[in-house]
Amino acid sequence: MFCLLLEFYKKKRQTDLYAEGENVVDCKSGLNDFSKGSIMGNIARLAIPMTLAQLINVLYNVVDRIYIGRIGEQAAYAFTGLGVCLPLISAVIAFSNLIGMGGAALFSIERGAKNTEEAAYIEGNSFTMLIITGILLTVLGYAFKRPALYLLGASDATFPYADSYISIYFAGNIFVLLSLGLNSFINAQGFGRIGMCTVAIGAGINIVLDPIFIFGLDMGVSGAALATIISQFVSACWTVKFLTGERAVIKLCRRYMGVSAKRAAKIMSLGLSGFTMAITNSMVQIMYNANLQIYGGDVYVGVMTIINSVREVVQMPVFGVSQSAQPIMGFNYGAMEYDRVRKTIKYNSAVLIVYTVAAWALIFLFPHFFLGVFTKDPQIMEAGERALHIYFFGFFFMALQFSGQAVFTALGFAKKAVFFSIFRKVIIVIPLIYLLPKIGSLGTDGIFMSEPISNIIGGALCFAVMYFSVYRNLGRK
């Protein structure tokens, strides 16, 4: 509500220059110039609100899980049923990354090169692609949801809860894609705080509606899903309103919305990294749930649901910082300010490594706290402590992966970005999920071990390739 009132007040001021405490925006030239000023200042002005936005965004699903874990005698089944839905939700988010992150990266490069009209076409094409994709995902989701849920690890006891949640969630796919995908363009224009408001508005509505629908109207998991899509609808309206308004650096206009095959291909090629990371994460969750159901049953699928929730919370700042660095790197790369690109890479990498070391320490020292946020079930609590310790071992290596991926995406090295997304999850994690539990008597421990092994190998290799093939060659080619 505060964000809405703030925006209403600011829109009353009709001037050519706008400032939010961020870079001054020249609406006539269409530039929010990341090639000037302190690099750390530019990163901070975007990273702080974007990181807060990412953390707030976690509340969409995490708050649902907290409430559902306390709905009564069937809480454990409902909680596990919701966990079964997570790979499908990740798949929807993957498509928002494909178009939103890819379009925003290309948008930033064109702005840095002062190709303002081409940047507008990229923004308009991305909007149309998000709508079409949202409709297609809804149709396909309803067509295949039953076999998909059983494939993801649902049992006869948990299927009704999973089906109730995902059936409503699919109805709001288009709102999810628009709110997440278009918010990347708000951030790419330098409006980090506006991007944060996009997420804060939706999360705030979700938090208010969840207890009303789940407990007040006795809707259970269906109420949680309904609260989520209503909040995403409001967020989507907010993003469209801002990008079509006077304050946007480059407006979202109808004349630029006709999809060009060439532009669509460029957008998706740069978005493939974020898409692949999200879609392979969805694939990995399928494998985790299916194998944990075999070796541990519903209890361990419930543990995996908590692990996913904790990972989302602690990983969001990594997303926020790395994504805030991308438009700065892309803009300066387009403007041929290669020294500033190198400095941005160094600052981004250092912040991510320090943060992930601290996050790893907290999870290792206080596992019961993180488990207790989501459940009081003694079986899940007992199994979850060891699982958390194993799964998050060496978590800081993930910072190396995200740092390398951010550089590849921001500078247009699409093939490298996609390769390392596939390498860590598909080539390393998935085979290990099947192989490790069969070694000795590792069982569920072996399944959880696959994540830290992939982080160490994949993260180190991704960062090394970025350093030797991109960082050292900036400005030479």
Write structural notes for this entry.
There is one protein chain. With 477 residues, this protein is mainly α. It is built from 16 helices and two strands. Strands 1-2 form a two-stranded antiparallel sheet. A hairpin with a 6-residue loop joins strand 1 and strand 2 (25-26). Helix 9 runs parallel beside helix 15 and helix 10 crosses helix 14 (397-411). It is globular and about 60 Å long. Residues 1-31 have low confidence and may be disordered.
| Cα-based radius of gyration, to the nearest Å | 22 Å
Helix content: over 70%
* SS element count, helices: 16
Distance between the termini: 49 Å
Structural class: mainly alpha
Average pLDDT rating: 78
Strand order of the largest sheet: 1-2
From the spread of the alpha carbons, the general shape counts as globular
Strand content: under 5%
Give the topology string: H per helix, E per strand. HEEHHHHHHHHHHHHHHH
The largest sheet, given as strand count, sense and whether it forms a barrel, is: 2 strands, antiparallel
Number of strands: 2
Low-pLDDT segments, ≥5 res: 1-31
Summarize the structure.
The protein has 477 residues and is mostly helical. It is 78% helix and 1% strand. It is built from 16 helices and two strands.
Layout: helices, strands, pairs:
Elements: H1 2-10, E1 17-18, E2 25-26, H2 39-68, H3 75-112, H4 116-151, H5 159-171, H6 173-188, H7 192-216, H8 221-243, H9 261-295, H10 298-334, H11 338-365, H12 367-372, H13 378-391, H14 397-411, H15 414-435, H16 444-469
Antiparallel strand pairs: 1-2
Helix pairs in contact: 2-7, 2-8, 2-10, 3-4, 3-5, 3-6, 3-9, 3-10, 4-5, 4-6, 4-9, 5-8, 6-7, 6-8, 7-8, 9-10, 9-15, 10-11, 10-13, 10-14, 11-14, 13-16, 14-15, 14-16, 15-16
